[in-house]
Design goal:
The chain is mainly α. It contains 16 helices and two strands. Strands 1-2 form a two-stranded antiparallel sheet.
Length: 355
Amino acid sequence: LNTICIYWTAASVLIILVTVLAKSPSSAKRSGKFVFSEYDATASGWPAGWAFFVGLLQAAYTLTGYGMVAAMCEEVQNPDREVPKAMVLSVAAAAVTGIVYLIPILFVLPDISILLAAPLGQPIPVLFKEVTGSPGGGFGLLFLILGIALFAGVGSLTASCRCTWAFSRDGAIPFSRVWSKVNKRYDVPVNALLLSTAVICLLGLIYLGSSAAFNAFTGVATICLSVSYGIPILVSLLRGRKLVRNATFSLGRFGVIINVITVLWISFAIVLFTMPTAIPVTPVTMNYASVVFAGFTLISAIWYAVWGRTNYRGPKVSIADMGLAMDSDEGVVQKVETVDPTPPEKQGLGMKEKQ
């Protein structure tokens, strides 16, 4: 499936770019000056500088793909090296492919007012229709995007069900014994998969009732993911980065600087990503992500006080698993050479062994 996804995505991007550039009349194409230097934020109502930062929400949501990599680390060989590498490469790949995709789209961009008036706030279908000159052509290109979205949905579902299983295994969520069961035939947490699927379906139904409520749930994903990474980084900084001093994937002398910048950015982003995308604000355009985030934080805190404080065990990690040892006197982490008795072709953590 991953191989199909790679080929489908690459072919879709190529087909879309060739089609829009070929179908758009030369007289309708934008100039290089417009593509690389034009900046007009008047439609947002925000000051130009703040509008730029508010516009980063969509880009940040796209880059949350690195979170899926971390969710699958228990099934990856040599996760201490491969998972950080994959996370960095996912951001780099998204940046490169995004630029390759967006620059041609900007050259064929129709009148901005047409895109702003797009139904349900979705400009891409309108753009494809305007550029190709027909609804059929626009749908053909949109179908390729829908295929990419389908693969992304499979990845998101896989990551969410693995997170559900891991938290259930450690006793962190209600009815943990049910969700932590692993199907012996397929070596997959089927119950956790069904729970994740049901939650996703319910989120989809929310959109039918209120697009503002749906956008609040999807928008808060970026905030939650950022906070989930920011807290461990902050704790690591406060403890002098002792536990990552000899990490397999090391940032070296730049680690402290990068960590400080990360914590500052996340602190700023939490506020930034709760802002409405345009003003004046209406009940429909209001960004309710802050309400959802505060609500889930409160629920999580209450659940921890009632249940998690005494029942949550946390991940089972041994010194042998980490390949690290702590000097109790100096508090220094040292690398320990450990031998994995598992044959190389069978290394990687299976779920049956992790229960």
